[in-house]
């Protein structure tokens, strides 16, 4: 093992929230502890992100922020309107600040498949393309480092903790309702929405409809994972497993759509006939064909889930 590798930080382990979900307890208190714990977990990735030890530090930082944003949206009734809006706006800003760096990390991490996809005559253009991306990443990383070290960022983080503390000290009427009541109501509502979207999707649908389904599945999975302690473990595990498989398929499709948009934007900036232009034109053609193939497989997967999903099982367990 090299000295440099020994010096790398390990990814922080997620700590359990100090107050667990219980069927008859008020929903606001465990949700407060979960959100605070999750936000603090995101912040424990900042040092590794600044050191640039591993791209996974940024990825997991964003995963934790996304989990916080999802619960704020899905359990919005337990928050005061202004409190929820301020939390959502600040967390959205954090995500937007790190969007480009994460996208660049993903593209740079897929170098080998891109080279494998193109003939050798296009490799010189691909090298120039990836050099451009690496230069953009260096610039983006510097901006992120400066931002994370800034007084403004520290102030925004303190504001988030203060707003979350209000959830503990000023619970809403909805926040005082039992966990199981809200869990069933939320899961049943989003399961039915997911089923409706699944059953409306076919091969002729535009990509936007598939994107809508991806968001619906993501929301349902967040709910299942958050409320998992309230339901039979074996059944809940199976429901999450089925949904995750569909999500993975939808995710690959979305990634290829995003990649095509990115390549088109890059291509517009290149001189026709240049090595970069020739290579990216070829890569774009390959990506568009791959995207079309993904669409066929994702629709098949959606149909399987829509008509084989455990409707009766969901109804029995989650219907209020």
From TrEMBL:
Organism superkingdom: Bacteria
Pfam families: CHAD (PF05235)
CHAD domain: residues covered: 24-314
Name listed for the protein in its UniProt record: Adenylate cyclase
Species of provenance: Photobacterium halotolerans
């Amino acid at each position: 093992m090299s000295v440099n590798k020994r010096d790398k930080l390990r990814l922080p382990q997620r700590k359990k929230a100090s107050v667990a979900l219980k069927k008859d307890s008020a929903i606001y208190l465990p949700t407060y502890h979960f959100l605070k714990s999750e936000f603090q977990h995101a912040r424990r990735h900042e040092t590794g992100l600044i050191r640039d030890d591993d791209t996974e530090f940024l990825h997991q930082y964003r995963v934790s922020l996304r989990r916080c944003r999802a619960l704020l949206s899905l359990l919005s009734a337990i928050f005061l309107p202004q409190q929820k809006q301020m939390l959502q706006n600040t967390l959205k800003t954090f995500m937007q600040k790190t969007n480009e760096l994460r996208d660049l990390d993903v593209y740079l991490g897929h170098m080998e498949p891109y080279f494998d996809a193109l003939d050798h005559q296009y490799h010189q253009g691909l090298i120039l393309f990836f050099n451009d991306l690496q230069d953009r990443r260096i610039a983006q990383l510097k901006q992120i480092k400066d931002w994370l070290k800034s007084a403004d960022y520290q102030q925004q983080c303190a504001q988030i903790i203060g707003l979350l503390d209000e959830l503990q000290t000023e619970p809403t009427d909805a926040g005082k309702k039992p966990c199981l009541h809200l869990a069933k109501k939320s899961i049943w509502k989003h399961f039915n929405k997911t089923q409706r979207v699944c059953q409306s999707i076919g091969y002729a649908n535009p990509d936007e409809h598939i994107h809508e389904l991806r968001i619906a599945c993501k929301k349902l999975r967040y709910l299942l994972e958050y409320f998992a302690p309230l339901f039979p473990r074996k059944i809940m595990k199976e429901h999450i497993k089925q949904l995750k498989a569909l999500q993975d398929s939808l995710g690959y499709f979305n990634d290829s759509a995003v990649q095509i948009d990115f390549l088109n934007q890059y291509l517009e900036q290149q001189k026709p006939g240049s090595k970069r232009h020739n290579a990216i034109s070829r890569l774009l053609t390959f990506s568009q064909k791959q995207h079309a193939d993904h669409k066929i497989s994702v629709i098949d997967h959606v149909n399987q889930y829509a008509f084989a999903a455990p409707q009766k099982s969901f109804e029995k367990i989650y219907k209020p």
